[in-house]
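Justification of resources, computational component.

The compute hours requested in this renewal are based largely on the per-chain cost of generating structure records like the one below. Each record pairs the submitted sequence with a full structure-token output. That output is archived, and it is also reused by downstream analysis tasks.
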Amino acid sequence: MAQLIAIVQRRRAFTPAYHRLQRQRGWLVELERRLDPPIVTGVPRPSGAQVQRRIKAFLAELQHHAGYHPHDAAVVAHISATFAHRWPRLFACYAWPERYRTNNELETFFGRLRTRQRQTTGHKATHDFILRYGEWAVFVDFHESFEHLLSRLQQFAQADFDREYTRFQHAQQRLRVWSRFRHHPRRCLAAAYFAPSRFMATFGVRASEKASPFDEEKAATQKSLL
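The structure output for this chain reads:
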């Protein structure tokens, strides 16, 4: 009994620190809950602006608490500084719930994407595929059923689909020009020199429609390049 009492007596010295750590851990749990609220059936998920207001209100409560509890001031300052550093980009993904919200989730997605491409093509490097399709590959789900895909596509108007598909085709053409220039730079430059309007349109730049006065020089240059 004397040994048990001695152990309890020794523990009492750490009781205030223990309760302080428990309280500070509770703050982090509450912040995590407000950043990622639980899904409730029939209740819409909060928007980025709503989550931002909830986080800002809780941080204000912590600042007020730190004014009366100096032992917690350093932890509150660290939490506030961490949120202030990430604040401009912290609430952007709430508008697109189907996208990945954390770096770990995004890195896992691209890791699986690279693995699938290696299995499909047999190529170890997948850099070109990521550059070519990365913007659109985010929405690819290989486990998605045809019915679910059809229901997603029906949420968009035909005009919106056509506009996005045109942008996709334009991006593909731009990447094809880059690839052509990498493998055949002289031919690519010759094509840009003799057809500037078409070449510059690939990069979204309007070329002048006025004819060049150096047609003979162009013809001689084209012959030497090709």
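Residues 205-219 have pLDDT under 50 and may be disordered. The CA atoms of residues 78 and 84 lie 10 Å apart.
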